[in-house]
Design brief:
- This protein is mainly alpha-helical.
- The chain contains seven helices and three strands, in the order H-H-E-H-H-E-E-H-H-H.
- The protein is globular, with a radius of gyration of 17 Å.
Length: 148
């Protein structure tokens, strides 16, 4: 790896670490774990089959079952039958869950000031470069506040 690429990789790693640190702290302020907050962010966009949640989070379906159980216990999510296939269970955010996801997202300050210091053109270029790096996967990142 050339030195410039190594430096970029290190900077991306630092950004990711800071993002998760703040995301987990924001989740804790809402009495959620980071994983619960990420599932809630996904569900706030609409009902989703449990298996799809697991695929998006890149984890085992049994983990998602436990997370959704805990979200249900807090009144943030519910399970419902899929109208297209009653054998499939969908997880969905309740109104309280959608409100919580919105409050959590708005409480994230990570990079707000550093990004605000960039011009609209610079932010657009940064976004476009990041999307290009991710290919078509950018919109499917459940950990991203943009996803929820």
């Amino acid at each position: 790896m050339d030195p410039l690429t190594a430096e970029v990789v290190d900077l991306i790693g630092t950004i990711v670490a800071r993002y998760y640190q703040e995301y987990d702290a924001a989740a804790a302020a809402h009495r959620l774990t980071g994983a619960q907050a990420r599932v809630l962010a996904l569900l706030s966009t609409g009902p989703m089959p449990m298996r799809q949640i697991a695929q998006r989070l890149k984890c085992e379906p049994s983990n998602v079952t436990g997370i959704v159980d805990r979200l249900e216990a807090q009144g943030l999510a519910e399970r419902r039958a899929d109208p297209a296939d009653r054998r499939v269970k969908l997880a969905a955010a309740t109104e309280h869950g959608r409100d919580t996801a919105a409050r959590l997202r708005s409480s994230l300050d990570f990079a707000r000031e550093p990004l605000a210091a960039l011009s609209v053109g610079e932010r657009t270029t940064l976004r476009d470069l990041l999307e290009r790096m991710l290919g078509g996967d950018a919109a499917q990142d459940p950990a991203s506040p943009a996803a929820g």
